[in-house]
Structures are given as structure tokens and as C-alpha cells.
Amino acid sequence: MNDENRTIPVNSASNSDAFLSGETSNNLTKKGQSRRRFLRLAGQTTLLGAGLAVLPFGALNLNQTQTTQIENPVATASVPADFVVESGFPQGGPYTSPVREVGQGYHAIGSYWEVSAGSGAAVEIAVRGSQDGVTFDDWQHSHADPTEAPRHAGKDRFFGRLLYIKAPFVQFKLDIPAGVTVSRAGLTFVDPGETSPATLARIQAVTTLATATPTATPAQTVTPAPTTPAPSVTPTPTPTPPPAPWTVPPLASPPVVSRADWGADETLRFNSLGEVWPPEYWYPKAIIVHHSDTGPTNNDDPSKDVRAIYRYHAISQGWGDIGYNFLIDWRGVIYEGRYGGANVVGGHALQYNYGSIGICLIGNFETTAPTAAQQDALVRLIAWHAAIQDITPIGDLFFVDRIIQPISGHRDVLQTACPGDSGYAILPDVRQKVSAILGQGVAQAWLQSLTVTPSTVTLGQTVKVEAVVTNVGKIPLETQEPKPNFAYNQDQTWISAALPKETGKVRLGLDFTGNQGVTYPYRWGMGQTLAPGATATITGFIKMESYGRKTLFGGLSQENTRYFSGNFAFTEINTIADGPNRTVRAASRASEPNTQYFDATGHNLRGVFLNYWNQYGGLSLFGLPLTEEFEEASDTQPGKTFLVQYFERNRFEYHPEYAGTKDEVLLGLLGVQLNSDQVFPLSTPFRNTASTIYVPQTKHSLGGAFYKYWQAHGGLPIFGYPISEEYPEKNPDDGKTYTVQYFERNRFEYHPEFKGTPYEVLLGLLGTELCRRKGWITG
Predict the structure, then answer these.
(1) Residues 426, 525: one domain?
(2) Could you tell me the end-to-end alpha-carbon distance of the chain, in angstroms, rounded to an integer?
(3) 668 with 648: CB under 8 angstroms?
(4) Residue span of the structural domain in which 89 resides
(5) Span 114-143, pLDDT tens digits
(6) Cis omega (within 30 of 0) on the bond before 296?
(7) CA 632 to CA 582: how far, in whole Å?
(8) Residue 577 to residue 777: CA distance in whole angstroms
(9) Same domain assignment for residues 599 and 698
(10) Which of 401, 402, 382 lies closest to 392 in space, CA to CA?
(11) Who wins on pLDDT, 48 or 704?
């Protein structure tokens, strides 16, 4: 399960995956690495012959070389450019393409077409391969299945299923119904790369767990339901003999190959604008079973199939990720699918994505049933998720706009043959087996209440966390350290406090909005094993060590297993500075030498601070003084104290060790300080131009109007390096949204309404914001 995603709507399902894991990933630093390159090449259309061209947009292989960039080493591969035809199609009837020599640098073939009139879904496509360009293998047929997609998927291009053809020569043909005008058709070539030894070893470890015989409950056996095929548009499957009685295994979380372990290249989820398909979360009510409709699959290394499907969904079809939540190979090995972890919305059934878990059986199961290992893994996976999501396996469920079984096939919600006749025929048996497993009981807990008090504290004080938990299940709830009343420092986590997870044990967790680090960083045990029906009160403390307002919320987890609740009881805590309010108006000292009094804020500016203010930009760059000079412990350099003065846009620090030099007065790193808990996406390195530069010190870019302003108004000494890219942000003072970029010492805001004037770029009021966080400014 992953912890990367932190953007979760308050009214959505809980960020349970984040709660369950806790360690965050640095994948955000890879944003746009490969897809930006694809987009840059999108206009480079290379003619291949009459009516043939490289696909000019949206699909995989916009260049001749495709490079796989992932941390689990997978060999790079040179992949053929797309084989595209853009003319010569009949107005209804058959069309056969020229033969195309493409080499063998690929693993599978995807197909697509576009129409300018009629229904593209009615077009049929077939592909065949040849070793010499003369003698061909049989045609492999495909058709569009637009029912399998996320909400943001494009509607103008139709895609066929992924075909495992590997031949140096290829050809395709279309069957175009009357009234349909095809404007473009082509093939895209997908190569997931060769699996590295390290990746194979990790998959093998999970495979060993998945294929091990589970400890069963000998007294319970179930005779599976008859496998009577349901009516379908596909041929009747070959009858299979009745299965033997089945021994009910215990309810347990099945082993799953993580995205990292099967070699997911996370850069494919991003383009130049950011994440193509940001995760959304929804409580699941149903399980929808699919087949990949691919074959023959790779019996020696099914992870190639997973990576191929991922590339076909993420790049060729433009989704930005794989559509399924889980995939299961012929050996019964389960693979993590869609990025985001538990409850993430997939892209496998259009409007029925929301509230469902999509599980794909890898293979084509029109006439052949899934392997016994696949079926067993499907049962165990569904049983586990049905248990933790309270899904009843048998019965009627009103779902979106229809009544279905809680465990259904893709064809039950949309007009499709998926998961094939033989795949669909196993579902009654799956439901009975899941029901038998669930009959053994599962841990259930209720987080009744959660309070965090007091709502306002001074720096260094503690807040008290108190929660009430009840065991509403049939089995005891075990717990772990720390015991109630344990006190965390604000910058601590359960990891740094050496309180690692113990699988299956129950703990209370506390998190805060905007957290980009360890999820639910503060966790407490119940102090006792909780019997069914019993209630426990959990108390904990957090010492607040940084200024400002934080919105805290709680959750209850069975570690490494499941969540009971999350995003619970949002509470705002305000940590203010101890001591006097430094923004209170002061008496004028304008009669003193080298002193200026500002009546607008009621503060004096004098001596070296006044000299610096006048020399380096005055009111426009620093704003009005908000305080007098005073001694303050450094927020960014622990153990040091400086003479400081706050201004609307920054803080001046006096450094006597640099007296008589340009560094006698230094500006505070307010941009860094105010974003200490933020993790900004990094820029991909690039060659500098006259208008845009890459800053290796912070790995960010700076360009356009912001770069011009930075150069013209003091550059590095005044603003520091950029610490973010440009992005939209709401201004806390006027409530409006602007394009901004943070620097070590300030924030730039772009105002298009003032384009061409000195006010096109304005500086953020970071000094004001920091004074507000300290509790000195309350308006």
C-alpha cells in the first residue's frame, strides 16, 4: 500500500492507504520526466509512405526510442514508431493495410482508430504478424471496448485489446460498417522491458507466499456451485468437470506484489502539467471482475503482462495509470494496480468505477476458465476486501443505477462480454467461497469520539488527545506500544520514536492536513486487549514546537492490515508565540538620528535596518515595519539568537560578525520557514535559455515574468533560490487565486491584470503571514 497521495477531500473516503503504511515516496520528484519528452516530440510527424505517418498525438512511441526509467532496473528497449494510416479507407466495407516492417523491439501490439462519422465502437480490427513479410500467422481479432476507462479518458479515439504478437512484419485490417467514416487507424507497439534480476527476486518472494498452501480449517468444506455459463454474446465455453469439495482457508490478507516490485515506472503518471490522473477515493460497495482479454500471456514472467497493460493504459490510451485496482496472473500471484492504495478509484467500468474495486484476471477467458490458482487468489483477495469494507458477498445491491450482486462481472454493469463466458461462469462459486471464509469472523472496531484540547497553546505547550474506542466485532482486538499517555514532540513520528507497526495490532492515529511526510505520524495503543463489546479510552499528548494553525484529524488502524476509520474529527489547533505581542504599536522615535517612524503600522525603523531598507528596495520589496527591533531565537538556526525586525514581506536579521560588509543585514528564510512541511514537485533538468533557467541548487526552474523580476530586483541575495515551481495558490489576505512561485525568502505572485506595469509581479506578505502564525496578528 502506498502513502504518496495526500490530496483527499474531506467528504471523501479516508486516506486509509496512507494510514496503513506511513512511509512516503519520492516519486513526485520525477514528475514529467518521460511524458514531457513525448509531448515535445508530438509534432515530429515522419512520413512512412503513401497515407502512412507516425501518430501525431496522444499515443505511445512518438519517437523511435522508448526508454524505461524506473528504480527497479528494467532494461531499456528500442520500440518501433506507431504504424498509422490516415487515408484510403472505404465508406463501409473491408480495408487491409500495407505490410509494415517494424523489427522485434516490442512485446505487444495495441490498436486504435478514429472516425469522423458513425459509431467507432462498431469497427472491428484484426492484426497479424510475419517473420518474413510473405507468410503470415492467423489474424488476431479485436474490437473497441469503451466501457473500460476512467472518467477523464478521451472519447475521440477507440482502442482494441492488447495483442501479444511479436513479429518483424505486421499488417492490420478493418471491418468498417456502412455509415462509418474512418479517418485514422494504427498500431502502437508496447515494450515493458526485460525484468531485472532484483525485480524477479522480489516477485518470486511474493509468488512463494501466494502459492503456499494456507493453513485451513479442517471442519469446514464447501461444495462449489455449478459452473453454468450465463447468457453471453461470446461462444459457449468448453464444459469443465465439477470441482472437488473445497476446504475453507482462514481469513487473511493475501500477499500482493507492489507497484515498485513489479517495476511500475511512476514517471508515466505525469506529463508537463503534472499528474495526469490524480487519485480520488471512494468507499467500495462492490467488486467487479474483469479479464484482460489478452493472450497468450507470458507464463515465464507475467510481470511483463502487467507492465504492458500499464503502458497501454497510461500512455497509449492517455489515462495516466493502469485502470484496474488489482491484477492476478495464472499462478495466482496478485499485483497492485492503480496508484493510490486502498479505496482509490480505478478506471475499469466508467461510471461504476466509483464505489467498486476492479480486479483483472490476466488472460482471455471466453472459452477457457481461469486457472485454479487464479480462482483461489481471486477468492482470497475478494474475501479480504469484503471483510474490511463490510461487503456482503451474496445478495442484491443497488449500485449507481441498477441492482447487481456485490461480486459481479464487468458485463453486469455495462454492455460487454468481459470477463468472458468461462470467466463469468466461476462467479457463483466465488461468491459461495467468499461467504464461507467471512463466516469465521473479522476484527471490527468503532472510533466513537476524538478530541484534541486546548484549541490555542503557546510554543512548547502540549495538546491532549483523547479517543474512545469500542470493539464491535466477534474477536478480541490486540494492541501494541506506545501505551496511552505517551507524549510526542511535534517533529516526532511513530517511526522516529522507534514504535514500528506490528501487523494486526490496533492503534489510534493522528494526522494533520497538508502533511507531506509520514502519514498519521502520531499513534497510540489501547493499553489492553479489548474483548468483544468492551470500550477503551486512549489518551496521548503532543508538544507543539512550531507556530501557526494546524488542522488535526484522527483514524483507527489495524496495522498493515486495514483501517476502521480515517479523516475523523477535524480540529484546528493554533500555536502562538510565548511572550509579548511584538506588533503592538510603539511610540515614535523619529527625533532620534537615522530613524523613521511609520504611522500606518506604528513602528520605527532605524540604524543599519533603515539603511538596508532604503538601499535594497524599500517599501516595494520589504513593505512596512510590523514590529520594533528585538532579540529572537532563530526559527531556522537552532541555538542562535539575532536582533530582528519584521516587515510585511520579510524579516531583517542583524549579524554583527559581518559588520561593515554587505551581509551585516540578512533576510530571513521565510519562504523555507512557512513551507517546512511541504514537499514541492521538482523540475526535470534542462538546458538554460535566455528566458528560463534550471537551478541545480534546489532542482527547480525559473522563467518568464518571474525570472525577469528576480533578475531586476536583487536576485539571489534578496529572494534566494526558487524552492517550488509555478503553481496556483489562494492568497490568504485577499482570498483570490494567483500563479505563484516560492523562493527561499519570498513568494512571487503573477497579476495578469497589471501586465506591462511594475505591478505585474507582486511579492507575498510573508512577514505578515509569519506574524499571524505567531499569534501577533489576529485579523
Answers:
(1) no
(2) 42
(3) no
(4) 41-442
(5) 999 888 888 999 999 999 999 999 998 887
(6) yes
(7) 11
(8) 11
(9) yes
(10) 382
(11) 704
